[in-house]
Each structure stands twice: as C-alpha cells, then as structure tokens.
C-alpha cells in the first residue's frame, strides 16, 4: 500500500499577528524520506508540530495518516507517530532512566507513571538502543547523558511504538563532527531500510541530510520555496532563495555540501 501519510492544503499558522506558516501545501507519501531545510525562524519546527498532531493550523486542512486534524482524537493518533525533538527531551523528569525514556515512547507520554510493560516491550526498547549504538546506557539517568547520547536515545524512543510516521527535529544539532557523522550514518541505514517508517527530518544544514533521503522541502519565512525530489530541490537557485545568500551545492557519495559563493 502506498498511501498518503501527510497531506497539508493551504496551511497557515498565525500567532500574535505574525505568520509562522503561510499557504503550505505538501504531501508525504508512504515510504518517503523527507528533509525540511530552512534558516532560523523559517517555520520548520511549527510545521513538524503540525505533522505530529501537537498543533492545529489557523488556516487550511491537515490530514495525518488519513485522519483529519480537528475531526479526530489526537490522543489515538499521536502513538502512531514517533517524534524526537529537544522540546521532548527537556520535559524528561530528573532521575528518569534511559530505559524508561524509551519505553514511555510506546504511549507517546513523557515520564513513567503506572503503565505496565510486557517483556516484549523491554526487549524492543533494548533492541532499539542496541541498533542506535547505546545499549550500555540502558540503566543510566537520561539527564546525565551527553548531547550525542541523548539524540540517539530520543530516536530509539521515537521508534518504540513502531510508528507509521517518524519525525526528527534537528537530530544532529549540537553534535561534534564525530557525533554528527555517526548519527548521519545511522539515519542513512534507517532511510535505506524498507521496513522503516515514512520519515520527516528537520535540519538547517544540507551536510546533515543522510544518504537515502528521497525528498526535500525548503522553507523561508513560513512559505515553501521548493518541494520535491531531493536532487531537483537542492539546486544553487533554490538554496540561494531559501537562505537569502548566494550558495553553490555539490553532491558526493549521496551526501550534500553547500557553501557561499561571495
Ligand atoms: N507564539 C509566537 N508568537 C509569535 N511568533 C512566534 C511564536 N512562536 C514562534 N514564533 C516565531 O515563528 C517563527 C517560526 O518559528 P519555528 O520555531 O517554527 O522556526 P524554525 O524554522 O524551527 O526555527 P529554528 O531553525 O531557529 O529552530 C520564528 O520567527 C519564531 O520566533
């Protein structure tokens, strides 16, 4: 089945007179791996919050996993979506273990309470931590992890409910070069795994786009500059328009590199 996982039509978000998103029309099909790129303040996180059913638009229509926002129970929809973001990591209670951070992803809740988990849930959580190279962290307190370790644990948590849609908000932000390359490599393995969910990742940098990502959406000042197949979107013209400075872009071994030409 190759259905539509996300469908936005004429979506706008206004706050205090400001347009955070303007007339965004965007479709994500099952199996796509999208990257959303744009400068600071472009509206990337706002767009991802809509895709995560955490925010309702002021204008337009949003369908997520064939459910229309405003006409569906978001508490049933959210566990079908895996979401990794700094905003979630910041809400993790002090003292929460890495294992519980991952396990609670099953219910899209933050902070373990009275919910019960089966041995299969424990095995899945540990398996995901292993796949992300952080099995040894399972008993650690999340608050004591390095930024790179936190990013990988957050992705394991986002994958915990076996989501139909995986959303990653700036997964490589704050990582050193080794940490970034390690994460990009792991995300590339995920992108090339046909069993992995449809994925949307937000980043500021084309250098962080893993090999295997198929589509790109460029945002500037809340509006779409370009959207479509990644090699048709990552052109000097589109990136120049998106970031507002003259840019050139190269591709090597499936990775992208951009730099200013002045
Ligand atoms: N409640 C609000 N009222 C007014 N403006 C807001 C509000 N919330 C966010 N904004 C503004 O909306 C714009 C888009 O924010 P958003 O976080 O979606 O951008 P972003 O592309 O993710 O930015 P960054 O790359 O810096 O994280 C920003 O200019 C932000 O200051």
From TrEMBL:
Molecular functions per Gene Ontology? ATP binding; ATP hydrolysis activity
Does the record carry Hydrolase as a key word? Answer: no
Task: Return the Pfam families for the record.
Answer: ABC_tran
What domain of life does the UniProt record list for this protein's source? Bacteria
What's this protein's family per the entry? Answer: Belongs to the ABC transporter superfamily.
What name goes with this protein? ABC transporter ATP-binding protein
RNA-binding among the record's keywords? no
SUPFAM superfamilies, sorted: P-loop containing nucleoside triphosphate hydrolases
Q: Which UniProt keywords apply?
A: ATP-binding, Nucleotide-binding, Transport
Q: Domain ABC transporter spans what residues?
A: 6-246
Gene3D superfamilies named in the record: P-loop containing nucleotide triphosphate hydrolases (3.40.50.300)
* Annotated source species: Actinomadura logoneensis
Question: Which InterPro entries is this protein grouped with?
Answer: AAA+_ATPase, ABC_transporter-like_ATP-bd, Metal_Ion_Import_ABC, P-loop_NTPase
